[in-house]
Amino acid sequence: MMQVMELTADEVADLVEQFWSLGGESVDLGLGRLVRSPAAPGHPLENFLTSLRVGSEDQLVSLLADVEAITGAPCRRVLISPRTPPAVEALLVLNDWSLDTQLQFVLPASVAIEPATLMLELAQDDEDWRAIEGLFRIDHIEEDRRAGRAVRSVSETCAAVLLRRGLTPATYFVARHDSRAVGCIGVWTRSDGAAMIEDVFVHPEARGEGIATQMLRFVIRTARERGSRPVLIGAEADDTPKHLYARFGFRPTAVTRSYSASRAG
């Protein structure tokens, strides 16, 4: 198969959708595709819909009812794919679903990356994932306070980590200093030569020391060693990491959209 050298906006949206589908069960419901991730009960991406083709409010209601009948839980997230008809988004807005956007960057294969001076540890056992959960908890508290909303529960943080742990074959790494976890990062390398980085986070007490840059260098070089060329990373539109990624050499390529019935984690 020919190596993918760049990613178009449509390919970016497909890559994001495929990443969150990893480890899940896909069910074609006719008017949309359901992705189930039973390992993360309570998370907004436990049951999500994509590739919607509903053309009326009755069809949307029927589709959501089908999801709940199959899974025993309501659908809380809809991902918008390049092929989603505009009328679908209009129906979601009409029914009070909230729009979430992410700015997506692509690092071209031509951008050289220096070796990392910080070695990361592959998250493999419960202890590693407890360390990641501790970092996620801090991230959730910071994110919710920044947004001016109530801090999500510990169980919601746990569900977010369980979801990531089930995203096989994506891998997560932990950065440590004096045996203390100071950062985490995830990466997935697709068979066609594209890769995606997710969940870059550094402990507040370790910020300003270049750890995020070192983690990026480590996973990008890891992805390239696995045969990847373009590397995708996303950032919230109102958050500062987007500036770090731009300085690093990532190029803004697309804005991906999803709709939530309640906030995500």
UniProtKB/TrEMBL annotation:
Q: Does the keyword GTP-binding apply?
A: no
Classify the source by domain of life: Bacteria
Query: What EC number(s) is this enzyme filed under?
Result: 2.3.-.-
Q: Which CDD domains does this one have? A: NAT_SF (cd04301)
User: In the record, what terms sit under GO molecular function?
Assistant: acyltransferase activity
Per UniProt, the keywords (alphabetical) are: Acyltransferase, Transferase
Q: Which Pfam families match?
A: Acetyltransf_7 (PF13508)
Which InterPro entries did the record assign?
Acyl_CoA_acyltransferase, Bact_Acetyltransf, GNAT_dom
Give start and end of each N-acetyltransferase domain: 111-265
Uppermost EC category: transferase
The protein here is known as GNAT family N-acetyltransferase
Name its species.
Pseudonocardia aurantiaca
